[in-house]
């Protein structure tokens, strides 16, 4: 299945889709030196979150999906050069609302979260006044 959402995003920064099937997505991200928050190579958590968010969007895979909320936990640090893999699954669907669980791993679990996504009738910016 091909991506139907976030088509303009930088795959270098949020990861490369490995699998997209109905309600499920897996995305891999090779962490880069420019993602480092310090001189020891600690990857800024925003990149881990961005990977997980992108995987959640692909699990829904609708052109008009947006993130409404996230409950997340960072469980272990990530060092530049590590490869992250996010697996996201839609676990609940109610009208426009989708609950997506996501786990990000290296050789261990480093992040987990539940993303509340919404499938809108049109592009989110079209609703702006």
TrEMBL record:
**Location of the Thioesterase domain:** 41-106
User: What superkingdom does the record give?
Assistant: Bacteria
> Per its record, how is this protein called by name?
Thioesterase
- What organism is the protein native to? Desulfuromonas versatilis
Q: What is the lineage of its organism?
A: Bacteria, Pseudomonadati, Thermodesulfobacteriota, Desulfuromonadia, Desulfuromonadales
């Amino acid at each position: 299945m091909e991506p139907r959402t976030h088509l303009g995003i930088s795959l270098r920064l949020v990861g490369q889709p490995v699998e997209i099937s109905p309600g499920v997505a897996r995305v891999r991200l090779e962490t880069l030196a420019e993602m480092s928050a310090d001189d020891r190579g600690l990857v800024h958590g925003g990149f881990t979150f961005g990977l997980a968010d992108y995987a959640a969007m692909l699990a829904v895979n609708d052109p008009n999906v947006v993130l409404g909320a996230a409950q997340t936990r960072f469980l272990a640090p990530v060092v530049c050069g590590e490869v992250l893999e996010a697996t996201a699954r839609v676990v609940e669907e109610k009208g426009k609302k989708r609950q997506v669980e996501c786990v990000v791993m290296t050789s261990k679990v480093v992040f987990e979260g539940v993303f509340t996504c919404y499938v809108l009738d049109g592009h989110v910016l079209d609703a702006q006044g």
